[in-house]
Amino acid sequence: MKLSTGKWVHIFPDSGVGYRLYDPIAEAELGRILFDVADNWIYDDHLLSVDEQEELAGAINGHQKEMEQLLKSLTNDKH
Predict the structure, then answer these.
(1) Is the CB of residue 9 less than 8 Å from the CB of residue 56?
(2) Are 3 and 55 a contacting pair, CB within 8 Å?
(3) Which of 17, 23, 33, 57 has its CA 20 to 30 A from that of 2?
């Protein structure tokens, strides 16, 4: 994902409740964004600005909701 700041970030699902963030240009880990059941998030590092954190969390959360809606619609179509 390209952030509004121009920074590229790859987002990988983590083995838990979050996502691992990686800078492909600098070849460096950027930390993780973790979500709770209420979709609240926290960034566990200091390498991204607050604006970058919010942009990533919004993108991740938006994609999650879109996928959940798609899965629900597919399930409803089968019944």
Answers:
(1) yes
(2) yes
(3) 17
Residues 8, 15: Cα–Cα separation, whole Å? 22
Phi, psi dihedrals of residue 63, rounded to the nearest 5°: -65, -35
Three-state DSSP at 77 gives helix
| 23 SS3 class | strand
Asked whether the beta carbons of 44 and 34 are under 8 A apart, the reply is yes
Query: 27-72: per-residue pLDDT in tens?
Result: 999 999 998 888 889 999 999 999 999 999 989 888 767 767 777 7
The 10 Å Cβ neighbour count of residue 10 is 12
